[in-house]
Design goal:
Blueprint (H helix, E strand, L loop, with lengths): L13 H26 L21 H22 L6 H31 L3 E5 L8 E5 L13
Helix pairs in contact: 1-2, 2-3
Length: 153
């Protein structure tokens, strides 16, 4: 097996995996907060309300990326905990239920957002030129977003 050498790194139980994923989300939140505080100029309010910060440092920017990476491990470990694979059944079951609720809420809010932007016409279905095989893609009608990730010059 290709992954046999990495077995030592796997969590022993589902509740350990669940706590590790939640700790990764918390560490991401703390790292973003530290980056915001380091960048915030003197005299700007606590949340940066007096001065708009960069797009990549707004609330949720880092957290949503990490949540996307951890969505499957969070859901899988939560289901395993709820099915009885836990060392601390009471605490783990409550945490698993909260995590599943948050993941479901995240999916529904994303669906609501996509439905709204397509319905308002801010995002359009456009056909690519024949050189791109005439495929259809969704594009912003008005490009008003900054790059979310840095690119090399």
């Amino acid at each position: 097996d290709i992954a046999r050498s990495l077995v030592w790194a796997l969590p022993t139980t589902a509740d350990v995996e669940l706590v590790l994923c939640c700790a990764a989300l918390l560490a991401t939140w703390l790292a973003r907060r530290a980056a915001v505080r380091q960048r915030r100029p003197e005299g700007v309010g606590r949340d940066g309300a007096d001065g708009e910060g960069p797009h990549g440092l707004v609330r949720g920017a880092w957290e949503l990326r990490v949540a996307g990476l951890l969505a499957f491990p969070l859901a899988a470990s939560s289901i395993r905990v709820l099915s009885g694979d836990a060392a601390l059944p009471m605490f783990s079951s409550i945490l698993a239920a909260v995590v599943l609720f948050m993941l479901g809420h995240h999916v529904l809010m994303a669906l609501k957002f996509v439905t709204e932007v397509v319905g308002e016409g801010r995002v359009l279905l456009a056909s690519l030129p024949a050189t791109a095989h005439g495929s259809e893609v969704f594009v912003d009608r008005i490009c008003d977003q900054l790059l979310a990730l840095p690119v090399s010059p």
